Amino acid sequence: MKAANSNRDQFAILRRTMVEQVALHADHVSGKTGRTAIASPVMEAIERVPRHAFVPVEMTLYAYLDSPLPIGCGKTISQPFIVALMTDLLELGAEDRVLEIGTGLGYQAALLAELAAEVFTVELIEELAQSGRRRLGEQGYGNVQFRVGDGSLGWPDHAPFDRIIATAAPDLIPPALLQQLKTGGRMVIPAGLEDDQRLLLVTKDEGGRFETEEILPVRFSQLMSADDD
Question: What GO annotations for molecular function exist for this entry (predicted)?
Fold first, then answer.
């Protein structure tokens, strides 16, 4: 029991340090993002969610570095600063329904679940989807629904969504995701060719028109579809 408590205390200290690093990074790139700080609710959620529970066991010691980490199947968990920024750009409300494309091992979904009413997450790779579902369940997140499938198609049965976030990058924003975004909604998605990606904020106004804002250059795994080999 003492060892378990000691580990929890150590991880809590490491999370606080990670939050400080994220804050410094946000300030450093504020000229590009237009945001001098990440909103307090997002930072508080990052300090609550145990990132070490959403990485492979061999990555546990590195979980609180402000760095992407491999999670298997050729995929990564995003850098904490990028996760914080993307979550912040969504401007989540407590009643929002959120679609996430790319469950991975569930870390981003956990943060969304802390801040929104419902999370609908889609993962193409079944091995990751099953592991992500298990990890989120172990952490007690009961407001997340899961689907194994092609993320570029969204989840039409539950559309429209107040917010949409993608953790993998298509060349172009999939039309299905635009169609499934609610009027007045916000989408945060990386897009572009592998060596020329941009993080985009897409908003949909009351007239149904879309506006796209480039936030900063990024590097994400490519969004795969069910048709990819």
Answer: protein-L-isoaspartate (D-aspartate) O-methyltransferase activity
